[in-house]
Design goal:
By secondary structure, this protein is of the alpha/beta class. The chain is about 40% helix and about 15% strand. It has helices at about 30-40, 55-70, 90-105, 120-135, 150-155, 175-185, 205-215, 220-230, 240-245, 255-265; strands at about 10, 15-20, 20-25, 45-50, 80-85, 110-115, 140-145, 165-170, 190, 230-235. The strands form 2 sheets. The chain has an 8-stranded parallel β-barrel with strand order 3-4-5-6-7-8-9-10, surrounded by 6 helices. Strands 1-2 form a two-stranded antiparallel sheet. Helix 2 runs parallel beside helix 3, helix 3 (about 90-105) crosses helix 4 (about 120-135) and helix 7 crosses helix 8. The chain starts with 7 loop residues before the first strand and ends in a 16-residue tail after the last helix. GO terms for molecular function: oxidoreductase activity. It comes from Russula ochroleuca. This is Aldo-keto reductase.
């Protein structure tokens, strides 16, 4: 399938998710607002936030202002946010309501449990609250983030509905093969929140050589790898030029041999955190 910035993947719940997202981790205040506006103006239609990032208000305001100025419908923008604490059913419902109010968008397109901490009961109650919020129309799709194999199996053993999305760190140096295979087997779309490995391997010889071959930047090689693996990569920048450049990944394609070579780079490279083995 030939992809473009407007392409979307079908989720198991019938909704659709844009294939490239703009992340806002560590973006605060006017920096978050400005970066999201630039991303939307550059053609991104997928904005990723979180309660933890403390920028839901700025992201929502940027989306609404962009829609008002451009004529683009709110329904064309896919907005994600995430639960900060797994603190029980009522606390999760309250957190969802607070996020809906803060972003000002009337509903959330994708709501994720940000991590598996708190133990089995806390995870179960958080998930049940997400299901209830989806039924109430507060959120369109629900999913998980940074869950390990045990956490996913535990969730699936409790019965449907299953998460539509799993957001986790994925890149050539962190392939998480077991988690990827499990999610694909259950129809769960994978989002790569560290698709660029935080530029920690931009100087790797294979990355450099591929960038030279295709006349691209190292970042483009990482993003193209992610797209061809069927992931939804998230990119983040506060630089206008870089925001635009990161979307320029739909005019070339890595061949199967190159994808296989990139797959072999796995070294379990952590770029931030890894709660996949928490109790």
């Amino acid at each position: 399938m030939k992809l473009s910035l407007r392409s979307r993947y079908q989720l198991s719940d019938g909704n659709e998710i844009p294939v490239l997202g703009f992340g806002t981790y560590e973006l605060a205040g006017e920096n978050a607002y400005r970066a999201v506006k630039w991303a939307l103006e550059a053609g991104y239609r997928h904005i990723d936030s979180a309660e933890w990032y403390e920028n839901e208000r700025e992201c929502g305001r940027a989306i609404l202002d962009f829609c008002a100025e451009s004529g683009v419908s709110r329904t064309d923008i896919f907005f994600t946010t995430k639960l900060k604490h797994n603190a029980g059913f009522d606390a999760t419902i309250n957190a969802i309501d607070r996020s809906v109010e803060l972003c000002g968008l009337n509903y959330i397109d994708l709501y994720l449990i940000h991590g598996p901490w708190g133990g089995p009961d806390a995870r179960r109650q958080a998930w049940e609250a997400c299901v209830a919020a989806q039924k109430a129309g507060k959120v369109k799709s629900i999913g998980i983030s940074t869950f390990g194999m045990r956490h996913m199996q535990e969730l699936f053993d409790s019965g449907p509905p299953l998460p539509a999305v799993h957001q986790i760190d994925l890149h050539p140096f962190m392939t998480r093969n077991e988690i990827v295979e499990f999610c694909r087997g259950h129809g769960i779309v994978l989002e790569a929140w560290a698709a660029l490995a935080r530029a920690m391997r931009f100087d790797h010889s294979l990355i450099v050589n591929l960038a030279k071959k295709y006349g691209k930047d190292p970042a483009h090689i990482f993003l193209r790898y992610s797209l061809q693996k069927g992931f939804v990569p998230l990119v983040k920048s506060t630089d206008h030029t870089r925001i635009v450049s990161n979307s320029d990944v739909f005019d070339f394609e890595l061949d199967s041999t190159e994808i296989a070579e990139l797959d072999q780079l796995n070294e379990y490279l952590l770029t931030d955190w890894d709660p996949t083995d928490c109790p």
